[in-house]
Amino acid sequence: MTRMLVIACLALPFAACKKEEAPKVVEAAPLTAPTTDDVAAWRAYVTDVAKRNMDGITNSPYVYFLPGESSEGFGGQYERLLEKVEGDLGRGIVEGNMLVFASPSSAKIGELAVTGFGHVPAGSLKNVKVVFVGKAEDSMKVEAASKAAGVKYVFVQTK
Question: Among positive and negative, which fits the CA dihedral 84, 90, 96, 98?
Fold first, then answer.
């Protein structure tokens, strides 16, 4: 009986060594911003950025995407998106939501975001995350305009 216990004790560590390790999950490398105004490529990029920033978010994000300035009907698209942003922010955004502002035209989406946050009461968007995808000089303006509302601001720089 003692021999059996000794053999079992010696065999146990070897049996444990033969177990296969669970595969390690490696997060995909971040996508880089498209260098063209290709809407499909930008939508894929923005979707990836949104997914990577969902921590603490309990609802589907509000994504405000503006195509490049060279796209047909850009002025009308800008105006319609601005109306949507102002309407959404005017009604109020419940905490646990995320707003993503992105465009191949960083200056225009930055301008749109700043204008949209212009009428938002101070402190009314606590625990709402705002993700701005663009250039640093535009981010500073968007951050200043949105911070008064009490948001958690995230900047994703495009190059």
Answer: positive
Q: Residues 37, 65: contact at Cβ < 8 Å?
A: no
pLDDT tens figures, 98-115 = 999 999 999 999 999 999
Detail the DSSP E strand segments found in 19-128: 62-65, 98-102
Q: Where are the domains of the chain?
A: 2-157
Q: Which of 119, 114, 149 is nearest to 132 (CA)?
A: 114
pLDDT digits (tens, 9 = 90+) for 61-92: 999 999 999 999 999 999 999 999 999 999 98
Which helix (H) or strand (E) segment holds residue 134: the answer is: strand 129-134
> Using CA atoms, how far apart are residues 138 and 155, in angstroms rounded to an integer?
10
Indicate the pTM of the whole model.
0.79
Report how far apart, in Å, the C-alpha atoms of 60 and of each of 31, 47, 54, 128 are: 21, 11, 9, 12
